[in-house]
Recover the amino acids of this structure.
C-alpha cells in the first residue's frame, strides 16, 4: 500500500455536512480529504430549513470567514448565488385531518418565518446545494475523491489509514464520518444502540413527485383557513392520528426552474406497523383518507423510486473518540418533524471545526478535546426526541396538538434569537476561533432548551402529556393546562397576541411584526430574554440591518441591469479583471486564525468537481 501524503482531516461523505466542514477546514489551511462513495449530483433528503439552520449558516460564514456558506442563509441569497431549483419557505403550515371527513378549516396552524433581511427560509434542492458546497470546498483547497466508498479504517496512535473500494489508500491525522444514516464508522466500531432507546417510534416513506397541486389550489386557500401565508409557500404538514406527511415544493415561486415536490409520509409505528405493501400503495391508501390531500395528489407521480425506511430512529453509544468523530446524521436521528436535522448538523460543525483547527495546530487530537461535541449532540437529540414523541402523542386530538406546538413556537423563537445574537457578537469579535459563546450558558443554540425558564415550561407540559398517555388525564384538560403553563412562563411574546387556542398563528411575520417582537425582546421580555437574547440589539441596529440588505438588493439589481444594457452594445469589457482580483484576494487572504498546515494542493482523481 503506497500512501504519499498525510491529510490533517479525512471526511467520509460529501453531503451538506461534510462539504461545509471541509470548506471551513480547508479555508483555515488544513489539508482536507473528502471521500464520497457516489458522485455529484446525487439525491439527498433533508430539504426544509428553519431559522436556526439559516442563521447558523450566517454564523459559520461570519465566524470562519467562508462567505459562500452565508449564501445559503435565506431564499434570495440561495436564488442569487446557488440555484434557481430551490423553493421558497414563508412558513411552517400544519393542517389537521380526521379520517374520511372534510378538513375543518379552523384545525390548522401556521408559524411564519422572518421576512427579509433574515428570511424567508428556503427549501434546499439538496442535489444542487450539495454539489455547490462541494465546489466551494474544492475552491478553498480541499481534495475530493468521488466514487471512493470508504471500506475500512485502521486507527493508531498517530492517525488513521483509510481504504476505499477500488484500492484507494489514504492517511490522515483525524477522521470524520459525515456519511449520514448509513454511517460506516457506526458499523465498524459497533456503535449503534440496539434497541434504540429514543422515545419516538416512526417509519418513513418518501420520494420526489411531479404534478402535485398547490394546496391552496385544492379548494380552500390560506385566507379561508385564516392564515397569513399561502400553504403552498410553506413546508406543509398534513397531520393525522397515526402520523404526518410533508409536502416541500421546489416549484412555488415564479423564478423556479424545478417542477419537483418532495413528499414524505411518517407513520407512528405503534399505529401503523409495517405492512409489507409497496410504499406507493401505502402512500395512496393513507392519502385517500384525507379528501383534500387526495385531491392534491390526484395526478402526482413519483419521479424516483420510493424510499421506505423501517424504524427511522437510531442512536449511537459514542459519537467521538480518539482521532474520530461522527456528524449528527451519522450518529443519531429522531424524525424529520420540525426540520431539526440541518440545524443540529450546522451547530455541531460550529463547535467541531474550531477544535479541529486548534488540534491541527497543536497536535492534540485526543478524545477529551472533542468531548463537548458528543455532549452537545446528545443534548439536542434528547430534547428533540421529547418534543417529537410528544407531538406524535398529541396527534390524537387537535386541541392537544394546538397546545403542544406552542412549546415548539416558543423554543424556536429563542433558538433563532440566540444564534442571531451570536452572529452579531462575531461581527465584532477579535479572536473568532477561541471566542466560543455558544458553548457556555445558556447554550444559545437549538430551541433555547438550555434556558431554565423554558426547561421548566417544557417539564410542566411534558408531565401533562405523560398523564394523557398513561390514561390519567383527558386530552382537553391537558391542553388547557399546557396553555396555562405557556402563559405563566412569560416567554410567549406579547406582540404575538394571547397564547389561546383560537390564536392559530402569531401573525404574518412581516417587517412590522419582526420589529415589534424585537422591541419586546429588548425592553419588555422576561429578564432572562433581555439578558441573553437581545443584548447588543437595538432599533438602530435592526434598522441598519434592514437598510444594508435593501441597499445590497438594489445595488445587485441595478448592477445586473447595467451590465445587461452594456452587453447589447459593447463586447469589450474588464469583467475578467474583477474576477482575477477576486480570485487573487481569495488566494492571498490569510485564514482568520493561525494553523500550522500548508494549504493543500487539490489532487483529486475521480470526481468531476475535483480542483484541477
Ligand atoms: C426522511 C428524512 C427527512 C429529513 N428531512 C429533513 C428536513 O426537512 N430538514 C432538515 O433539516 N433535516 C432533515 N433530515 C435530516 C437531514 O437529512 C440530515 O441532517 C442531513 O442530510 C445531514 O447531512 P450530511 O451531509 O451529514 O449527510 P448526508 O446528506 O446523508 O450525506 C452523506 C454522504 O455520505 C456518503 N457516504 C455514505 N457512506 C459512505 C462511505 N462508506 N464512503 C464514502 N461516502 C459515503 C453518501 O453517498 C452521501 O453523499 C431528514 C432526514 C431524513 C432521514
Amino acid at each position: 500500500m503506497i500512501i504519499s501524503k498525510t491529510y490533517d482531516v479525512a471526511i467520509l461523505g460529501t453531503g451538506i455536512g461534510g462539504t461545509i466542514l471541509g470548506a471551513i477546514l480547508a479555508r483555515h489551511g488544513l489539508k482536507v480529504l473528502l471521500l464520497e462513495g457516489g458522485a455529484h449530483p446525487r439525491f439527498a433528503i433533508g430539504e426544509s430549513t428553519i431559522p436556526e439552520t439559516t442563521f447558523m449558516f450566517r454564523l459559520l460564514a461570519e465566524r470562519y470567514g467562508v462567505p459562500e456558506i452565508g449564501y445559503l442563509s435565506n431564499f434570495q441569497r440561495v436564488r442569487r448565488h446557488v440555484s434557481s431549483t430551490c423553493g421558497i419557505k414563508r412558513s411552517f403550515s400544519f393542517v389537521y385531518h380526521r379520517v374520511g371527513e372534510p378538513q375543518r378549516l379552523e384545525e390548522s396552524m401556521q408559524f411564519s418565518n422572518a421576512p427579509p433581511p433574515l428570511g424567508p427560509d428556503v427549501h434546499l434542492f439538496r442535489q444542487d446545494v450539495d454539489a455547490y458546497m462541494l465546489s466551494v470546498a474544492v475552491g478553498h483547497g480541499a481534495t475530493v475523491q468521488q466514487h471512493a466508498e470508504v471500506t475500512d479504517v485502521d486507527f493508531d496512535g498517530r492517525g488513521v489509514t483509510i481504504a476505499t473500494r477500488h484500492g484507494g489508500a489514504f492517511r490522515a491525522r483525524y477522521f470524520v464520518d459525515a456519511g449520514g444514516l448509513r454511517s460506516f464508522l457506526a458499523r465498524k466500531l459497533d456503535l449503534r444502540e440496539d434497541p434504540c432507546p429514543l422515545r419516538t417510534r416512526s417509519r418513513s416513506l418518501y420520494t420526489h413527485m411531479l404534478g402535485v397541486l398547490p394546496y391552496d389550489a385544492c379548494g380552500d386557500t390560506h385566507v379561508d383557513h385564516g392564515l397569513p401565508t399561502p400553504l403552498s409557500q410553506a413546508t406543509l404538514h398534513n397531520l393525522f392520528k397515526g402520523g404526518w406527511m410533508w409536502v416541500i415544493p421546489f416549484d412555488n415561486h415564479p423564478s423556479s426552474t424545478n417542477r419537483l415536490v418532495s413528499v414524505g409520509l411518517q407513520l407512528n409505528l405503534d399505529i401503523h406497523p409495517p405492512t409489507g405493501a409497496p410504499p406507493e400503495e401505502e402512500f395512496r391508501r393513507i392519502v385517500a383518507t384525507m379528501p383534500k390531500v387526495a385531491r392534491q395528489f390526484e395526478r402526482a407521480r413519483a419521479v424516483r423510486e420510493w424510499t421506505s425506511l423501517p424504524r427511522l430512529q437510531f442512536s449511537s453509544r459514542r459519537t467521538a473518540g480518539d482521532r474520530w468523530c461522527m456528524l449528527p446524521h451519522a450518529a443519531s436521528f429522531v424524525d424529520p418533524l420540525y426540520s431539526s436535522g440541518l440545524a443540529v448538523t450546522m451547530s455541531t460543525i460550529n463547535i467541531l471545526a474550531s477544535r479541529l483547527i486548534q488540534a491541527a495546530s497543536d497536535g492534540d487530537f485526543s478524545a477529551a478535546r472533542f468531548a463537548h461535541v458528543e455532549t452537545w449532540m446528545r443534548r439536542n437529540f434528547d430534547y428533540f426526541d421529547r418534543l417529537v414523541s410528544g407531538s406524535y402523542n398529541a396527534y390524537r386530538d387537535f386541541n392537544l396538538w394546538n397546545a403542544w406546538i406552542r412549546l415548539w413556537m416558543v423554543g424556536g423563537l429563542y433558538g433563532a434569537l440566540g444564534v442571531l445574537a451570536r452572529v452579531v457578537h462575531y461581527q465584532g469579535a477579535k479572536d473568532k476561533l477561541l471566542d466560543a459563546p455558544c458553548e457556555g450558558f445558556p447554550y444559545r443554540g437549538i430551541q433555547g432548551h438550555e434556558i431554565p425558564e423554558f426547561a421548566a415550561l417544557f417539564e410542566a407540559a411534558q408531565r401533562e402529556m405523560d398523564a394523557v398517555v398513561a390514561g390519567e388525564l383527558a386530552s382537553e384538560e391537558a391542553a388547557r393546562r399546557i396553555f396555562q403553563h405557556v402563559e405563566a412562563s412569560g416567554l410567549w411574546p406579547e406582540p404575538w397576541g394571547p397564547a389561546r387556542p383560537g390564536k392559530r398563528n402569531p401573525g404574518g411575520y412581516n417587517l412590522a411584526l419582526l420589529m415589534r417582537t424585537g422591541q419586546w425582546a429588548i425592553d419588555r421580555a422576561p429578564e432572562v430574554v433581555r439578558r441573553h437574547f437581545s443584548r447588543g440589539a437595538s432599533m438602530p441596529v435592526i434598522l441598519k440591518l434592514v437598510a444594508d440588505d435593501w441597499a445590497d438588493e438594489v445595488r445587485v439589481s441595478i448592477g445586473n441591469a447595467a451590465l445587461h444594457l452594456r452587453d447589447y452594445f459593447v463586447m469589450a469589457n474588464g469583467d475578467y479583471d474583477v474576477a482575477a482580483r477576486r480570485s487573487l484576494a481569495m488566494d492571498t487572504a490569510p485564514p482568520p486564525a493561525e494553523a500550522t498546515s500548508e494549504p493543500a494542493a487539490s489532487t483529486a482523481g475521480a470526481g468531476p468537481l475535483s480542483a484541477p
